[in-house]
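About this split. The held-out portion is used to measure sequence recovery: a designer receives only the structure tokens and must propose an amino acid at every position. Recovery is the fraction of positions where the proposal matches the reference. Here is one held-out target exactly as it appears in the evaluation file.
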């Protein structure tokens, strides 16, 4: 059996590869499974050079970031250290079509996209599993902090939160299918970050002390607004103007704005006006190009719609359940009633109002540690 490990050049994926390369049991045929390292080249860091600035290294690329050329170098160094085969696969076209373009279009439509979940669903599992099979690998593995368990009664696979709740990444994996779960492994799911670092140091991995990258990999300055402007200019694409008015919750016009893509629900700074009391973005109306602002209390809402729901635990239209629902990665989750609808939609109603329910973000449903499913917030009710 051959296992393909997604190696990003960071300590997590490198430790996952080390664990698999060092701990693989001999199978029934008497052969030790082979581990192969694969790095996905997703974004050319030399694109949009006007954004690099101080982020550019000597080679003219953003360094020390997820998916940078430095990361490819580090991943190769780890694979050589582990003495496993290693390949770089170019998925730039797929990544741009399924992650970058929806990211830009989402902001222009007044939403706040979450590209990491799309990347996991569309690239790191769908495309990666296909590529892995092309080189003869039966299974894939990543460095995600999550767990997979097979329900012996139903025969279905379950997605569970990682043991380390501070690093848990199951939220970003709600889109995984049964086929993908059945052929995937998360070697770090039962470990804490401290334990992972200890393993990396103990095995002498070249990246044992490498810091983590938190930014969106294709936004070198950390400013999504700058990225959108630069990307549209590179594409010679003039987006329809989304400039309009900033209005109060009672309809009074307070100011004008340059585009709805410059705002997110819950935002306080950068509203383009001075007021005596703090104001926050309450909602965005892309059809009217309006940004609605008000005091913090107006941010608390109960119900919303979810589109493109992936049910890991099957639910039929009309089924309703009580679940813990997270509306962003750092949201602690709150109890809610979730009702499945036709066309992969759902309606969620929290028992208690929650702050800043944001269209474009992922809503993920949990039963304890198990991820029941999730989708994209489409409309606050």
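Reference sequence for scoring:
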């Amino acid at each position: 059996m051959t296992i393909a490990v997604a190696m990003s050049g960071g300590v997590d994926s490198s430790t996952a590869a080390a664990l698999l390369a060092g701990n693989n049991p001999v199978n029934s045929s008497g052969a030790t499974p082979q581990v192969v390292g694969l790095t996905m080249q997703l974004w050319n860091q030399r694109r949009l050079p006007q954004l690099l600035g101080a982020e550019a290294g000597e080679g003219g690329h953003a360094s020390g970031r997820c998916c940078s050329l430095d990361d490819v170098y580090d991943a190769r160094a780890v694979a050589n250290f582990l003495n496993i085969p290693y390949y770089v696969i170019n998925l730039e076209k797929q990544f741009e079509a399924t992650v970058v373009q929806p990211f830009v279009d989402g902001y222009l439509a007044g939403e706040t996209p979450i590209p990491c979940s799309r990347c996991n669903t569309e690239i790191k599992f769908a495309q990666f599993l296909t590529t892995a099979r092309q080189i003869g690998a039966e299974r894939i593995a990543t460095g995600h902090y999550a767990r997979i368990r097979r329900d012996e009664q139903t025969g279905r696979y379950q997605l569970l939160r990682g043991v380390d709740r501070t690093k848990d990444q199951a939220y970003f994996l709600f889109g995984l299918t049964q086929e993908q779960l059945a052929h995937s492994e998360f070697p770090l799911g039962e470990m804490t970050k401290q334990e992972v670092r200890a393993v990396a140091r103990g095995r002498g991995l070249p990246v044992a002390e490498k810091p983590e990258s938190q930014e969106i990999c294709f936004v070198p300055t950390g400013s999504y607004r700058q990225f959108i402007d630069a990307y549209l200019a590179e594409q010679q694409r003039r987006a329809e103007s989304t400039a309009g008015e900033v209005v109060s919750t009672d309809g009074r016009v307070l100011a004008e704005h340059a585009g709805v893509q410059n705002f997110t629900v819950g935002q306080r700074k950068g509203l383009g006006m001075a007021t005596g009391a703090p104001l926050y973005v309450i909602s965005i109306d892309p059809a009217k190009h309006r940004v609605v602002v008000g005091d913090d209390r107006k941010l608390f809402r109960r119900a919303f719609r979810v589109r493109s729901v992936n049910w890991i635990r099957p639910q039929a239209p009309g089924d309703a359940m009580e679940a813990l629902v997270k509306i962003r990665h750092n949201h602690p989750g709150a109890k809610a009633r979730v009702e499945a609808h036709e066309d992969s939609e759902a309606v969620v109603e929290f028992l208690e109002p929650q702050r800043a329910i944001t269209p474009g973000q992922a809503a993920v449903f949990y039963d304890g540690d198990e991820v029941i499913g999730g989708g994209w917030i489409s409309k606050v009710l």
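Annotator remark: The chain is about 25% helix and 30% strand.
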